Amino acid sequence: LLFPVSNLCGKCRPRDADLLQPSLNFLYWSLHQTTPCSQQRAVAVLLSNVSLLELLQKVLECTWLRSPPSQPAYLSPEDALLCSGWLLVASLLLYQHRYNTEVHQTLSLDLTEVLNAVIFRKKKPILLLVSIVQFLRAVLRQNFSSSLLVIVGQNTAQGAMQPQPSSLQDAALHPLAMAQVFSLVVSLQNLLVHKDLLLSQAVVACLETLVEYLYVKNQDVALHVASQPWHRFLLFTLLNGGQKSFLQPEVLRLMTLFLRYQSSNIISQKEITQILQEATEANLAELPEATSRALHLFLCQV
């Protein structure tokens, strides 16, 4: 089925949302819900379809070309198509790298536009933000180097707002700039305040990958980002809700992140003791799977 569905997508236009959205969902599902052997073949089939990749390029660009919806919570057919497009491309990036699959057509994206889609959200629905954040994480995991994706230069319309990469820090973080890093971190923190489970999972994972990327590029920058005082206010905000327990997956993963990069001004011995106390009193067998995994990683880090 991959052949006819992918060929059908390649013959569509980005505005054919009613047909494209379920088709892209099928391709995404085919990549994830199959055996490793079949997965490798599926990736090869999709990456050999030049028309499909050209269509995906046009779909992603619609993210910043179309005007924001009047109702941000409402997921229109166009927004649903964008979600499917970003998630599919993120998966293709991941699996192309894993299997070193031959690429017949590259995708070209402006990094500034991708970052601005998260930083300047303009009433984007939560599911669309989740999809773009997932893509951004996939790109960070590959250090912006992929035979499938080409990162083009800074958008000239935004050039006046961006610092020139003349500093040693900007050169080390290329293609990111320090100003972009801090804007992205603040935006991801703000998204966490929404306390949406799906969004929180994607944002925390992206923060983890971002700091890992920074640590490889410039350890001082990574430690500086991880120790920003605003992180502590973020933790208090996340705990100041209906669930004041530290045993929330996103809180545990953030705590683990700060421990890993020795941000003692963010997480103190007091918080560590509170988490250990809550874990002692909890019925571990009844904890959700996401919480169990996050608690395991936290304890290993401690």
Automatic annotation (TrEMBL):
Spans through the membrane: none
A single GO BP: meiosis I
InterPro entries according to UniProt: Immune_Signaling-Apoptosis_Reg
Record-given protein name: MEI1 protein
Organism whose genome encodes this protein: Grus americana (Whooping crane)
